[in-house]
Amino acid sequence: RQDAPVAVSEIDSLAAARLAVQDCRRCGLCEHATRAVFGAGPDRAAVMFVGEQPGDHEDLSGQPFVGPAGQVLDAALAKVGVDRNASYVTNAVKHFKFEPRGKRRIHQRPDGGEIQACKYWLNLEIKLVAPTLIVALGATAAESLLGGNPRISDLRGRGIELDDGATVFITNHPSYLLRIPDAGKRAEEQEKFEADLGQVAAIAKQLVR
Ligand code: URA
């Protein structure tokens, strides 16, 4: 493996980063994914959402959160009044990790080394976008942003300040809701997810940029 060919200090815009990430060889995930999926949104945004990694739809389209998980996220954001288009949406890991099964590609969770390798790109996005509030969607994003092995149930619903001054707010990953088989439990978790995002909306309204 080799490092990304462009040093982080030489990348001074999201446009340059978006090009450079396609040559990334920092871990092995680039070998099977169609492309790297970089973040999307305004160059400067007060709120950044961080997911886990692109899924099948995102790998094919090149855009984050456009598949089923993205639809859950979009619906919840619309309900609580957060404008996705005014936010920056990205992932902790930029390549889709999957296991081929027949014609399907089954999502695999990225490991600690892959999360760490890709932190290079997430750090760069945080530096360039300079969000005040970073919403970690799920455990992989929380691990990338906070280190260790954070438990969503222990940390959700409150802000945790990072060294650079940004606040990380943790909630579940929207895919989690899609995987709950019991309708009652799913509705309960959906409500908690929307309540968390309602808090994000309230904080976002106070952020004047
Ligand atoms: N899940 C994620 O974590 N990110 C995406 O972009 C899509 C699905």
CATH class: Alpha Beta
- Supply the helix-strand structural class: alpha/beta
Please state the second-level CATH architecture. 3-Layer(aba) Sandwich
Calculate the terminal CA-CA distance, rounded to whole Å: 40 Å
Give a quick account of the main beta sheet: strands, pairing sense, barrel closure.
5 strands, mixed
In terms of per-residue confidence, which ranges show pLDDT below 50 for 5 or more consecutive residues?
1-5
- Strand composition percent: 5-15%
- The number of E-state strands comes to 7
What is the averaged pLDDT score? Answer: 94
Quick overview of this protein structure:
The protein has 209 residues and is of the alpha/beta class. The chain is 41% helix and 14% strand.
Explain this structure to me?
It is built from eight helices and seven strands. The protein has 209 residues and is α/β, with parallel strands linked by helices. A hairpin with a 2-residue loop joins strand 3 and strand 4. It has a single domain (10-206), classed as Uracil-DNA glycosylase-like domain (Uracil-DNA Glycosylase, subunit E). Helices cover 41% and strands 14% of the residues. The model is unreliable at 1-5 (pLDDT under 50). The chain has helices at 14-20, 56-61, 68-80, 112-129, 139-146, 152-155, 174-179, 183-206, and strands at 47-51, 88-91, 98-101, 104-107, 133-137, 159-161, 167-171. Uracil binds next to helix 3.
Feature tags:
209 residues; Uracil-DNA Glycosylase, subunit E; disordered N terminus; binds uracil
